[in-house]
Each structure stands twice: as structure tokens, then as C-alpha cells.
Backbone:
């Protein structure tokens, strides 16, 4: 049975999760054998990151919105009274400022906590680091297609989630041509590194996936996703 990730994807939910985690981590620090410097570093990371997404970023966005509105008013407004330049409140960050990589360090800490001798399931639930079981039925693969720079040209990157399946069966076509079998992928990502049909001419590549289990493709075809690959 697969599980969903314990760490929220939305920033609003992350604020709630991180606030709970930092509070509960201090309560369990001794049992989990966390040394004071590591605990302090983690709390610094969390405090700054929460401030960043809860206070600083929304404030900067609001300032940008007001600046755009003022610029447009000065440029195109008519019969309006004189308008003073907007005044933006100073935003003071918490100190100290951490080095980049807050979420990476946090994920590594959680991984170490889970293999520690003091860790228990009840502590994991209290910290919020246990994902929930995924009991939904996935009729088609969940996947994303993006492009990245290859050795000579761009290449398509297909990332997917297997859930309880062996892998995925990948079909593709180029520039509205015929669909063709490309690969069976057991690990992600799968990279489409084929050369362009016409040298130096960008092309549209489309993909669709099915499940692959016990040596055979099965299930329904996924929705088509497409990218443009260039030289």
C-alpha cells in the first residue's frame, strides 16, 4: 500500500504543519536524542521559512500590486486628484537568516528521526511525519512531462508515480504523426532523448501512458500531454 507524503503541498497548509512540527519537536527532542545545536538550527530554519511565506512574500506581492496600480494611474488617469507615491511598510526578517536548503535539511532530519531508537509511531503522528494510506484506485498513471537540456538538444522528461504497479507503458507521437511504442519504464524519470525529425526544427511531442504489470500493458490510456522540443 502506498502512502501520501506527510509534507503539505500548499504554502498555507505548510504554515500549519511547520508550526505544529516545531512545537512538538521541542517536546520530543530529548527522547529523539536531538542535540541542542541541531534543534536550534531546525527551529531557526522553520521560523525564517514560515515568516518568508506568511509575511514577506505576501507583503512584496501587495507592494508590487500597489506599485503597478500607481504607475498606471499616473500614466493613464484622468480628472483624478494628486496622488502621493505609495508608502510601503518596512519588513524586518527574523534573525539569524539561515543558509539556503531549509526544506532539504528538514526532510533529512525527519528521515534520521524515523530510524532513530527513540522514534515511535505515536511520536510520528504527533510530529505529523506519517503519511496517510492511499486507498484510491488509479485507473491511469499520474505523470508530468517537461523539457530539459540534453547533451545536444532538448529532451523530454516524463516523471510518474507507480503506486502499486510494476511500471508504465509509454507511447508517443511527433508532429501529429502516428502513435508508437516508446518504452516500458520501471523507474522515474524516463527521458526521451531521440534526435529531432528535422535537424534544427522544433517539434511537438505527445505522450500517453498505461500501466505495466507482469510483462503486459493494462488499464486505460492516460490523458495526452505534450511538449515542444527544440534544438
Residues:
Amino acid at each position: 500500500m502506498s502512502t501520501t507524503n506527510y509534507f503539505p503541498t500548499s504554502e498555507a497548509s505548510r504554515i500549519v504543519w511547520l508550526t505544529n512540527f516545531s512545537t512538538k519537536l521541542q517536546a520530543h527532542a530529548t527522547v529523539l536524542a536531538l542535540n541542542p545545536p541541531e534543534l536550534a538550527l531546525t527551529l531557526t530554519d522553520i521560523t525564517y521559512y514560515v515568516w518568508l511565506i506568511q509575511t514577506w512574500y505576501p507583503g512584496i506581492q501587495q507592494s508590487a500590486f500597489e506599485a503597478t496600480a500607481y504607475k498606471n494611474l499616473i500614466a493613464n488617469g484622468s480628472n483624478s486628484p494628486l496622488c502621493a507615491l505609495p508608502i510601503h511598510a518596512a519588513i524586518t526578517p527574523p534573525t539569524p537568516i539561515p543558509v539556503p536548503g531549509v526544506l532539504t535539511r528538514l526532510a533529512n532530519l525527519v528521515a534520521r528521526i524515523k530510524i532513530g531508537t527513540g522514534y515511535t509511531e505515536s511520536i510520528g503522528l504527533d510530529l505529523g511525519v506519517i503519511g496517510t494510506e492511499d486507498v484510491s484506485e488509479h485507473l491511469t498513471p499520474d505523470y508530468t512531462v517537461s523539457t530539459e537540456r540534453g547533451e545536444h538538444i532538448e529532451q523530454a522528461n516524463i516523471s510518474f508515480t507507480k503506486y502499486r504497479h510494476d511500471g508504465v507503458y509509454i507511447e508517443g507521437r511527433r508532429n501529429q504523426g502516428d502513435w508508437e511504442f516508446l518504452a516500458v519504464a520501471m523507474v522515474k524519470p524516463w527521458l526521451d532523448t531521440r534526435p529531432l525529425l528535422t535537424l534544427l526544427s522544433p517539434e511537438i511531442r505527445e505522450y500517453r501512458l498505461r500501466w505495466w504489470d507482469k510483462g503486459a500493458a493494462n488499464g486505460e490510456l492516460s490523458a495526452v500531454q505534450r511538449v515542444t522540443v527544440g534544438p
